[in-house]
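Q: How do we represent a protein-ligand complex in a form that can be generated token by token?
A: Start from the inputs.
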Amino acid sequence: MNDPLRRFVDVWSRVPGIGTRLAERIGLFVLGQSKEYAQRLAEAILVLREQTSICEVCGNFSLGSRCAICEDGSRDSSILCVVETPLDIVYIEATGKYHGLYHVLGGVISPIHGITPGKLRIEELVQRVHAGTVKEVFFATSPTTEGDATVMYIRERLSSLSLRFTTLARGVPVGVVLPQTGTQTLSEAIVSREELK
Ligand SMILES: [Zn+2]
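Then emit the structure tokens for the protein with zinc ion bound:
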């Protein structure tokens, strides 16, 4: 392997889901394309990173200091949907069944992996709910032990407030992470979301 290709494979193989073999195939694909295509590919990566920031309110991807959803005055500010990543918002928005606001945690509490509550955007969530107009906190986090522990921790932090806590319907077979759930299934899980007792 020549040096430029090795360098290419080195950076691409770090992308989740892309190992060395796939990185090599992408490299060979790029070598088979025009220089103009290679330029567009490189520019698209740079522009994506340079022009995208994180919304100061909810943690979603944003083009400015606030994302389009937080800026949208027609959204229902009495419901806050708690998700793990900005990508989860993309999947929930695709269903068209949710019209409230979001809060991105950045993951779930996982002591084994060194993810303590302080490493997530939980404090921001607690402050936001205390300060705002939220009446319902809707958890769309993973139905795993860690996801459930995170929900319990957040509920405990918000226990002094009179709130409605809901979660994606468990009767609906939602995957470990939202991207693995089909749009139809996710729609059903949102519409028939369950009250947390
Ligand atoms: Zn936002």
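The helical segments are 3-12, 20-31, 35-51, 68-71, 86-95, 122-131, 145-157, 183-191. The radius of gyration is 20 Å.
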